[in-house]
Design brief:
The complex is a heterodimer. Chain A is an alpha/beta fold. Chain A has one domain (7-123, 201-309): 3-Layer(aba) Sandwich (Rossmann fold), CATH 3.40.50. Chain A contains twelve helices and twelve strands. In chain A, strands 8-9-10-5-11-12 form a six-stranded mixed beta sheet, with helices on both faces. A four-stranded antiparallel beta sheet of chain A has the order 4-3-6-7. In chain A, strands 1-2 form a two-stranded antiparallel sheet. In chain A, β11 and β12 form a beta hairpin. In chain A, α7 crosses α9 and α10 packs across α12. Chain B has 13 helices and two strands. In chain B, β1 (84-85) and β2 form a beta hairpin. In chain B, α10 crosses α11. The longest helix of chain B has 38 residues, at 233-270. Residues 323-329 of chain B have low confidence and may be disordered. The chains are: A alpha/beta, B mainly alpha. The interface between A and B is medium-sized, with 25 and 20 residues.
């Protein structure tokens, strides 16, 4: 296949190239993460037990990504490589022993820990991985409504909104009365999405939202996030699945060794010569339709990670 | 084949009662204390003729074999007659009923107090995990759980009764007052100090367990999601913490009945509080098998009831437990 590659996809600015839908209303990105570093102080596991030597473990270094209005940006990296730390940083939910450096801009304004905390459920929303993120002892309806309402009237309005959303997303009214363990997988995913949509977010951070689904079902399940982006929202999709990312996202950020090595339009994955970084090219070749070619000699140490990613 | 829950419960209860009575009987019979000698008195026993001793032994049945004695007791027990206490010279059921009134009030106060206080302290410590309130509460809990109950009772008596004179130095009613004159306030006044001492030892255990569970809940995925949706720690503890803490707290609380009962033996001894615990000590030291078995059965029934309560409440609290039964160790 050799589609026409538009100019915007090849042109680079702010470490990334654009997709067709990428827009800069107001002259800025919806979310811009620049030179993010996350490190942890911990006891050195290699040191003798009683010495108590501390060390700094660097999980994310010099990571930059941008999410535009109207697009899905997929951050693709191996499982357990620290992608979730990116979600934590964007939501301001860092562990107490984490040291976070760099800058995060939301809607053109620089953010600090306190302002990121204010944005939670008020501009930025999380769609988590599984039903384990719901309180097992509380009815689903109460959880979708949440506990951020300040007044009785507001609470009532939120309940009304929940019913509208449930109707719009094909959830039966009886789901409201169920407990999380009674939900099917599809119902649970929509409930988690509704939790995010309740607050009318501008950016949704989706952290591995389709665990255990095959590619076609996962693409289908992500249709709702796609629709959210098309309506003018931004989606930061964190996943380990490159094929899924290429099917759903507008742009892909390749995450490796704690940083993003290349952030580029999905179109550029049509031809490896449009990809800048050797690892992205190695990923391209390792995909099923490109014969699972894992060229260890050509790409150096990339082989192992590629294999475990796909 | 599955029996109905109620039937299974009944069978378990019957087996428990039989086992407890056999073991207690066996323990009393293998104790070196001779019931005849202990109850007649040292001097009277020394001056007694051999024939008189044999007559007494035959009267009390202490010359019979273990199984003969046990079966004799058991056949009467099935008809509701638990025998006569040697030390109190009254039917065992009567002694237990008299003693239980005071003991149950004491234990119930201590049980509720330790549960509520332990839970509150544990939640505060867990929510402030690693910070000053947590360190203070944990420190106190470690010291308290390392403190023997009887020693704490003695210290409390010295400080609050002897030095400060705030509370009476023992007994459940004022000394020298006739039973008809004793008011409820008098009884409550005498109850305060032993109940406090008894509850404090349970507080540490419950606070530390609740703290761990609170830390777990706050580190859980659902707490993280709630935080991502804009909830603060206090809100998470209130909305998600309490209901998820309920189950382990219930387990602990129901299991702590046995600990409270054990503690009451020591506390009643220290405070000369006439309850079941003190009666158990008297019965044990006097070789009073019927009373000791009776008290053992009563306490086993109490603990069984506690676990049963936990089972029932589990089903009410946890929607995942519908139809299933929990087991409380």
């Amino acid at each position: 296949m050799s589609p026409k590659i538009a100019h915007h996809a090849a042109e680079k600015h702010h470490h990334h190239t654009h997709a067709t839908g990428s827009r800069h209303p107001g002259g800025h990105h919806l979310l811009a993460v620049e030179h993010l570093g996350v490190s942890f102080t911990m006891y050195d596991p290699a040191a003798p037990f009683f010495s108590g030597t501390r060390m700094v473990s660097r999980a994310i270094r010099d990571l930059s990504i941008s999410v535009h209005v109207g697009e899905v940006l997929a951050v693709v990296g191996a499982s357990g490589s620290g992608k979730t730390l990116l979600a934590d940083a964007v939501l301001g939910l860092n562990e107490s022993n984490a040291l976070v450096t760099g800058s995060i801009w939301f809607d053109g304004a620089p953010q600090d820990a306190a302002s990121l905390a204010r944005l939670r459920g008020n501009g930025i929303a999380l769609v988590p991985q599984s039903v384990a993120h719901l309180d097992p002892l509380m009815r689903v309806g109460d959880q979708i409504v949440g506990f951020t309402a300040r007044s009785r009237a507001e609470k009532h309005a939120r309940r009304e909104r929940m019913r509208e959303l449930m109707g719009a997303y094909g959830l039966d009214a009886s789901v409201e009365r169920l407990y999380p363990h009674e939900l099917s997988g599809g119902m649970a995913r929509r409930v988690l999405l509704l939790c995010a949509l309740m607050d009318d977010p501008r950016l949704i951070v989706a952290d591995e939202p389709t665990p255990g689904l095959d590619l076609d079902r996962a693409v289908q399940a992500l249709g709702d996030l796609r629709a959210f982006a098309n309506q003018g929202g931004g989606v930061l999709l964190i996943t380990h699945d490159m094929e899924l990312a290429l099917r759903v996202a507008d742009r892909v950020a390749v995450f490796r060794n704690g940083t993003v090595v290349e952030e580029t339009a999905v179109e550029n994955f049509a031809r490896p010569e449009l990809l800048e970084h050797p690892f992205s090219r190695a990923l391209w070749r390792a995909m099923p339709e490109h014969d699972f070619d894992v060229p260890a000699a050509r790409e150096g140490g990339a082989q192992k990670t590629v294999g475990s990613m796909l | 084949m599955r029996f109905p829950v109620a039937l299974r419960g009944l069978v378990r209860f019957a087996v428990l009662m039989a086992a407890v009575s056999v073991v207690t009987f066996w323990l009393v019979s293998s104790s070196p204390i001779d019931p005849v000698q202990a109850n007649v008195g040292q001097a009277a026993y020394a001056g007694m003729s051999a024939a008189k001793r044999a007559q007494l032994e035959a009267f009390w049945g202490s010359d019979l074999s273990f199984w003969e004695r046990y079966l004799g007791w058991a056949s009467c027990a099935l008809t509701g007659d638990l025998g006569t206490s040697l030390r109190f010279n009254a039917p065992v059921t009567e002694v237990i009923a008299n003693r239980a009134a005071g003991s149950l009030a004491l234990m119930a106060c201590a049980w509720v107090l330790s549960g509520v206080l332990g839970c509150v302290l544990g939640i505060v410590a867990g929510a402030c995990s690693g910070r000053m309130p947590d360190r203070v509460i944990r420190g106190c809990a470690y010291v308290l759980s390392a403190t023997p109950t009887f020693w704490l009772g003695l210290v409390a008596l010295m400080v609050f009764s002897v030095f400060l004179g705030w509370f009476p130095a023992g007994f459940s009613v004022p000394i020298g007052m006739s039973a008809s004159e004793v008011t409820l306030a008098d009884r409550a006044y005498h109850l305060v100090l032993p109940a406090l001492v008894l509850s404090i030892t349970g507080v540490a255990n419950i606070a530390l367990h609740t703290r761990e569970k609170t830390v777990d809940v706050l580190a859980s995925d659902y707490a993280r999601f709630a935080r991502a949706r804009g909830e603060r720690t206090a809100g998470i503890v209130l909305h998600h913490g309490l209901r998820n803490l309920m189950l382990p707290a219930l387990t602990l609380q129901c299991a702590s009945i046995s600990e409270i009962f054990g503690g009451s033996v020591l506390v009643e001894q220290v405070f000369s509080y006439p309850g079941l615990g003190q009666a158990a000590v008297t019965a044990g030291l006097g070789g009073d098998a019927p009373l000791l078995v009776g008290i053992a059965l009563a306490s086993a029934a109490l603990v069984f009831a506690g676990n049963l309560l936990a089972n029932v409440l589990y089903g009410v609290v946890d929607p995942r437990m519908k139809g299933a039964t929990a087991h409380v160790a």
